[in-house]
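Please fill in the sequence for the structure shown.

STRUCTURE ENCODING:
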């Protein structure tokens, strides 16, 4: 499948590289098919989650552990069934990150922002995912010092 992204130009995406998000992402419900893109030749730390349905839609994502965060939450039985999870080990958790330009007068406002209250859960083997919106307490976030 050929897609044309403003982020990386024209690319051929193999069908086995498409991840289905049956419910889309909140605010992007019509974008149900996505692919992961990263810079070739380097171990990826940040991926581009590129919509196959709308080439204008893409998000930078990374693993919480790379940010020094341990993120634990529960999935409902319906979510487990939708993801076709046989074991928690089959799931990969990622978070959407974005660079904040901030205010030049306030350097503390610049940097990287990560959305820990709406992580992505992907069953890579089955190529199906969802965005888990955590709208109440009941998840654990642990920050670890880097170094």
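FILLED IN BY: designer on duty
SEQUENCE:
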């Amino acid at each position: 499948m050929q897609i044309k992204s403003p982020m990386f130009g024209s690319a051929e995406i193999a069908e086995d590289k498409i991840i289905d998000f049956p419910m889309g992402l909140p605010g992007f419900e019509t974008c149900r098919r996505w692919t992961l893109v990263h810079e070739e030749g380097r171990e990826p730390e940040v991926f581009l989650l590129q919509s196959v349905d709308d080439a204008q839609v893409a998000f930078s994502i990374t693993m919480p552990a790379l940010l020094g965060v341990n993120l634990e939450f529960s999935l409902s039985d319906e979510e487990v069934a939708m993801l076709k999870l046989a074991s928690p080990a089959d799931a990969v958790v990622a978070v959407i990150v974005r660079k904040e330009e901030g205010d030049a007068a306030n350097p503390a406002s610049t940097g990287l922002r990560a959305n820990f209250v709406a992580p992505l859960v992907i069953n890579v083997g089955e190529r199906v995912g969802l965005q888990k919106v955590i709208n109440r307490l009941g998840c654990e976030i642990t920050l670890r010092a880097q170094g």
